[in-house]
């Protein structure tokens, strides 16, 4: 078994484990309203294609250096979540985390697309690593959009029940 085959198996294993970790949430969404799942998947696919295309059509290496800023923003989001769990969270903090996280993950799609394009331009054709990067970006964005859609649907359902 060569190195590429081993790396492909690890890619498949990571996809399996990601599916196993997101599976219970998807089952809950299907139980609640399956249209939310379809909307989240289509929204994720459209956002992924649009932002990847924008990164590929942009000036070479234009967004490549935003990776450090995105990592800093991810750190801020992490610290806000930790503080929220310690001191008690509110709906506002939850919504901030959802929308800010959505912005961060979309930014990572742009940066990673330009990073992979630049690596390919310099001869790095490591399709396993590039697939893993895109898969991670897609899965993170999907979960973020799914939670956001569920939150909005539950909020709308609560308003309808009151009336």
Summarize the structure.
The protein is an all-alpha fold. It has helices at residues 3-32, 34-57, 67-87, 91-121, 127-162. Helix 1 packs across helix 2 (34-57), helix 2 (34-57) packs across helix 4 (91-121) and helix 3 packs antiparallel against helix 4.
Architecture overview:
Helix 2 crosses helix 4. The chain is an all-alpha fold and 163 residues long. 87% of the residues lie in helices and 0% in strands. It has 5 helices and no strands. It starts with a helix and ends with a helix.
Mean of the pLDDT scores?
92
Number of helices: 5
In whole angstroms, how far apart are the ends? 64 Å
Query: Structural class from helices and strands?
Result: mainly alpha
Helix content: over 70%
- Roughly how many Å is the radius of gyration? 18 Å
Beta-strand proportion: under 5%
The low-pLDDT segments are none
Which descriptor suits the 3D outline?
Answer: globular
Largest sheet composition: none
- What pattern of helices and strands is seen along the backbone? HHHHH
Number of strands: 0
């Amino acid at each position: 078994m060569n190195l590429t085959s081993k790396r492909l198996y690890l890619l498949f294993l990571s996809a399996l484990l990601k599916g196993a970790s997101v599976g219970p949430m998807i089952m809950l969404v299907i139980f609640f309203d399956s249209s939310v799942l379809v909307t989240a998947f289509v929204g994720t696919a459209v956002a992924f294609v649009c932002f990847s295309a924008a990164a590929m059509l942009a000036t070479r290496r234009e967004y490549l250096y935003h990776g450090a800023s995105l990592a800093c923003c991810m750190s801020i989001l992490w610290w806000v979540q930790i503080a929220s769990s310690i001191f008690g969270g509110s709906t506002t903090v939850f919504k901030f985390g959802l929308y800010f996280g959505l912005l961060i993950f979309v930014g990572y799609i742009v940066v990673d697309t330009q990073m992979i394009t630049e690596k390919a331009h310099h001869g790095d054709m490591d399709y396993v690593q590039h697939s893993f990067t895109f898969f991670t970006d897609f899965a993170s964005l999907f979960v973020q959009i799914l939670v956001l859609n569920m939150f909005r649907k539950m909020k709308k359902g609560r308003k309808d029940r009151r009336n």
